[in-house]
Design goal:
- Helix 2 (about 60-75) runs parallel beside helix 7 (about 170-180) and helix 3 runs parallel beside helix 9.
- Strands 1-2 form a two-stranded antiparallel ribbon.
- With about 270 residues, it is mainly alpha-helical.
- It has twelve helices and two strands.
- It is elongated, with a radius of gyration of 28 Å.
- Strand 1 (about 185) and strand 2 (about 190) form a beta hairpin.
- The protein folds into two domains: about 1-50; about 50-265, Penicillin binding protein transpeptidase fold, CATH 1.10.3810.
- Keywords: Cell inner membrane, Cell membrane, Cell shape, Cell wall biogenesis/degradation, Glycosyltransferase, Membrane, Peptidoglycan synthesis, Transferase, Transmembrane, Transmembrane helix.
- One of its GO terms (molecular function) is pentosyltransferase activity.
- Pfam families: Transgly.
């Protein structure tokens, strides 16, 4: 009996030491994980704290920020830029730009996740950063509050600011900010300036075809202004985009089929 007890004691001592080391290791790893989570929590709190205070920003204040941003970029301070409310813009002009830039603008909540996944897949295949998926609200967030740097940190800032903008403001308010902030060419900011500089008429007189044409400039305003507006060079890809925008507008019944057919052969120059 004593021999059996001795053997059991030996076995107990044999396994007790590894178990003790395992418990210590588990406590050590646990403390590291807790510390990391604590640091992440602090960093995230600082990140959120440093974001713009959208919740306490009125629409008038946002307009002031937008105008200040645009005027700081203008070389010619006497240019055509002047704040233009949505009520002074032709509806077809508005919808043409929306259909081109962010067709789901009125249904998503700031981020178009389907377009985002599609863009990521295309960028992965091409091994470049050629395809973007920024919604109109994201563009507003970036152009008012952020830089053009393509970093993960900046994209995270853009994500949270976008969500805050969507929560605070109506779709029409966000759209008004966007249309007055958008760049259409060198020293051409806002839909009023684009209308007068390119078509020599007010935003109320711009039709769907002209709106679709102006949407071609938005991805790269300065480059496309020179190639399309000054050199009258519209590529087949750009022609297809105009047709797609007009077809989407016809499908949504923003324009009639008769208008659609007329605009397909529109003379822009």
């Amino acid at each position: 009996m004593s021999k059996l007890s001795s053997k059991l004691e030996v076995l107990k001592l044999t396994y007790q030491k590894p178990l003790e080391w395992f418990r210590r290791f588990r406590c050590f790893v646990g403390s590291i994980v807790v510390s990391i989570l604590f640091i992440i929590g602090i960093v995230f709190s600082i990140f959120i704290y440093n974001l713009p205070d959208i919740e306490n920003t009125s629409f008038e204040k946002l307009k002031e920020l937008t105008e200040k941003k645009v005027k700081s970029k203008l070389v010619n301070k006497n240019n055509y830029f002047r704040w233009t409310p949505l009520r002074k813009v032709n509806r077809d002009y508005l919808y043409a730009i929306v259909m081109a830039e962010d067709a789901k603008f009125f249904t998503h909540k700031g981020i178009n996740y389907d377009a985002l996944v599609d863009a990521m897949a295309k960028n992965y295949k091409s091994d470049t950063y050629s395809y973007g998926a920024s919604t109109i609200t994201q563009q507003v967030a970036k152009n008012i509050y952020l830089s053009n740097n393509k970093t993960i940190y900046r994209k995270l800032q853009e994500f949270f600011i976008t969500k805050r903008l969507e929560k605070k403001f109506t779709k029409n308010q966000i759209l008004e900010i966007y249309f007055n902030l958008a760049e259409f060419g060198p020293d051409i900011y806002g839909i009023r300036a684009a209308s007068y500089r390119i078509f020599k008429k007010s935003p109320m007189k711009i039709n769907a075809a002209e709106g679709a044409f102006l949407s071609l400039l938005l991805p790269s305003p300065r480059r496309y202004y020179y190639s399309i507006v000054q050199n009258h060079n519209i590529t087949n890809k750009q022609k297809k985009k105009i047709k797609r925008v007009l077809n989407d507008m016809r499908f949504m019944e923003f324009i009639s089929y008769k208008q659609y057919e007329k605009y397909l052969n529109y003379n822009y120059f």
